[in-house]
Design a protein that fits this description.
Layout lengths: L3 E14 L4 E2 L2 E2 L4 E3 L7 H14 L4 H4 L13 H13 L3 E10 L9 H12 L6 E6 L5 H4 L3 E11 L1
Parallel strand pairs: 5-6
Antiparallel strand pairs: 1-4, 1-7, 2-3, 5-7
The structure holds cytidine-5'-monophosphate and magnesium ion (MG).
The site of magnesium ion (MG) has 5 residues, from strand 1 and helix 1.
Amino acid sequence: MTAIRTGLGWDNHRIADGRPLILGGITVPCEFGLDGHSDADILLHALTDALLGALALGDIGMHFPDTDPQWKGASSDRFIAHAAGLVKEGGWTIANVDSTVILQRPKLKDFREPIRANIARLLGLELDQVSVKFKTAEKVGPVGEGQSAEAQAVVTLFQ
Ligand code: C5P
Ligand code: MG
């Protein structure tokens, strides 16, 4: 019988001037970016937490504490590669990943394909196994008022 696991991930970072806006490993040209100890890639962080969640292996901060100077400015490739390695070690295969980035602006839809392709590359998946969606927050709340950005992710594993 096929065993199936689902994992959920969420992340939130503050918007800050003079920081890069990196989503799914792709730098989006913008006059502001996301603040954080690492590269603040909310999408890769949410996906990493979703993978860890499916494995019931804690969360990203447990594996990569933000008090540890070795992760300062770290590329989030490193985090998701670690989680993907744990998936493989456990004998699991990723069926698909789905995600949503919630950011009031800039428009992200032109970056959907490069972001999907990069996530597919990082996780060893086909493009049609990787979904990336974008939403504004309708100008309401901290995301809508341009103070922060959020990402949500869900993954399904099987073996
Ligand atoms: O949030 P809302 O439903 O108004 O978003 C409409 C569409 O705009 C979304 O489906 C998405 O494709 C796109 N969008 C975008 N970049 C954002 C937010 C939304 O490209 N930052
Ligand atoms: Mg994060």
